[in-house]
Batch of 3 targets.
Target 1
Amino acid sequence: MHDLLTDTLPTEWEGRAIDPDFRPMAWLLIRTRRVKTNEDSARLIASAIPLFFVEPIPVAQYPEAFESLVRFCQGGGPEDEERTGTGSGDPQDEPVLDYRCDADYIVGAFQQAYGIDLTADKVHWWRFKALLHALPPETPLGKIVEIRGKDTSGMDRADRDYYETLKERFALPDGLKGVKRNETLQEHEDAFLDRFG
């Protein structure tokens, strides 16, 4: 397992030079959420490999290379794999974040909280994830994620109606619904990547 505080962030992964910027990983997670068929999965893998790896990968090595890419996306350690797939298991639960739908909020939150311009700055994926997880709840993104994940079942009617209205206002598109809720953004990312692992 890589130690974010003491180790240098990798620019090589499992023996291959990589582009460690957050953009290829965000691209992967956006498309992973929208894959509907095995054919879509095959196209996703074929498109993801050249975005992540600096040197060309022979097609015969794509499955192994994609598994390597997924391990990088998840953070590289067995602890991350153990946390995947946890959540309520209720198919009615919805995800609380989507990199495409929430792109403006993510860019704004990084600028507001850290002074990082994600439209211009390169940010290592692991650093990006750490900063995303630590965003202050006062940012618009923090508030929206809290609203989407709010359990209204134990609330009185007035509070429940209020939060349900907000949940509807900030809901992700129907095509992304029906995915079990995960407790953290990391678990959210890992659960979608597990579909290919």
Target 2
Amino acid sequence: MTIFTKTIKTALLGVILGVFMSAPVFAEDESLCAPFEDSQVDKDLLASMLKAAEDGHLYRIKPDSSKMGFCINSPLGKVEAEFLNFKGGLALQDTQQQGTALVSIEVDSLETDSALIEAMLKGESFFNAEEFPEIIFVSTGVEWINDKKAVLKGDLTMHGITKAVAFYLDMKKAKTVQGEEILTVKATTSIQRSEFGMYTLSPMVDDRVSLCMSIDAYKYQS
């Protein structure tokens, strides 16, 4: 299990979705807490998350209509990969002036068009899924550009290393035919894999990796 290397500050704007500990109304999502039970997330912050849930600020990621992946340039062309198993979500204030996010991804759920490349990426030379089974993102702040665009800053823990990153967000709200409120988010950023201890095949394979998420998140109803 990945352990965060530094304490998540209690000054986070808003609240984080899906990490509620010992909250009866979220008993069906108890597994969401697992990646964070041994981390240094402040207990008061967790309590504030429950309050946000009660106030109706939670948007839970719907995995079957969301996508999370990355692409990287190599001598064989652009390599694209997608993670199939992930959980988490967003918490937004109605004023659109605050917001946070949390995502946990199962590394072993990585999938590509090539079985050989897929095995290599999961192996010790890259993600090392056996030793580091999860990728975790916890936001630390948000800068709103307008009511549909924002820059989401946070800590990305991958391959046992935590680094600060910033995702650029495009968002829109809608309602399903059943009347459920849904938030659609496009999130993009780029990182250097060497900063996360992945040096194999450098410089043949590009050091810069583009991360992208297409998320459907449904508003939680208590």
Target 3
Amino acid sequence: MTLVLRYAARSDRGLVRANNEDSVYAGARLLALADGMGGHAAGEVASQLVIAALAHLDDDEPGGDLLSKLEEAVREGNAAIAAHVEADPELEGMGTTLTAILFDGNRLGLVHIGDSRGYLLRDGELTQITKDDTFVQTLVDEGRITAEEAHSHPQRSLIMRALTGHEVEPTLIMREARAGDRYLLCSDGLSDPVSQDTILEALQIPDVAESADRLIELALRGGGPDNVTVVVADVIDDDYGQTQPILAGAVSGDDDQGAPPDTSAGRASAFNPRRNEAKRVVPQPEELPKPQRSKRKMFIAAALLVLLVLAGLAVGREIVRNNYYVTEHDGTVSIMRGVQGSFLGIALQEPYLLGCLNDRNDLSLIAADQARDNLNCRMLNVNDMRPSERAQVVAGLPSGSLDNAIGQMEELARSSVLPICPKPKPKPTTTAAPPPPPPPGPAPGVPNASGNPGEDNPPPRGPLPGPAPEPPASPTPAPTATALPPPPPEPGKTCRTVS
């Protein structure tokens, strides 16, 4: 009895995500699925690196200790992630799940980490053969919630273990393979929106390619909230197996970066499955010549080269997408995404956030495409900056992460913005003061101090006063400096105007 695999692999970015971070490899000996994570931190790069590290296991005769080979390949993929993060710290946080099967006749090795899943359909019964490395799964294991409650738990996507470049031990399991078994590997883009009963119905479609297409369609009809990737593989007793491996998702390099279709029907109709030729598998005495092997190895080597090139391009693209710097754009102090310059006439940067100041000089950052009709702030013009900082902003401040660029903007608003020009004061008008009133005197007929009305007071008795002493000479006052008026404000140099 010769057991071989008949397989199909499909991947779709879904109806919400702008790009596909899943990567999948399906071959005669190796089935591997990686769900990248990290968003702007290049999850798609992480999934490509891990799949590239496993691809060499897809040889005609893996033999030996399957789990050791899987473990070593996973370690290489994890080390590749660590090397990329070390070379570009902006990629810190990228990672990937992994579920992979290494097939060898009536036995297979399974490696798993993360929340991608493996299922086995045997004798009409569907069984999950992997255990999610998630927070909600720990709650289920502790009896705090049920499996049904875990399916709708708000933290169901919180992963406890993944390949992120840090040391981690994946789950490794040996299993027996039987003719008639059907295996499904899938990302959570399928298992989250589609129930296990519905997955079972789709897996009962005899043809593996049609079954895989149906699973993708079900995920899209469920809203397609995430990238969705599946591998469907049958263990069959046959002399014929498939010739070439299937690459799909980010690792294939053909992910469409246009806007997602508005409907699941449009997405399903746009999906074009790839089919592969079958090849004869000869039970091997060692002495028989195997001319097919060299061709297969050449194809695998070419596939690995393509994977490495695609991974390098993806890393370069992610570096550009995750680089931010502060400069002037159309007169406004802005945070740009990308790098300065252009390539073949194509700008390598775009405005991302624009500075805006309110009446209290508090900084707000608005999206470059946000409408500006009803803003409660005024765009931060480069001419509002002090002349010394203005030249630096026009030239562009040092680039880095988005948080770094936001910090630079906040510092500019705090210490480099000119004060608001004072409004001109009206000239004061002078008014003549009225003459002082006459001093009060005794009214006519009023008695004086002697008691006789109308009679002047007599002079006081006593010796006549002598000559008055001369007052002491006052010191000569020191000269005082007269303060000059402050220079008038100069808009754009010493102050800024606001409308």
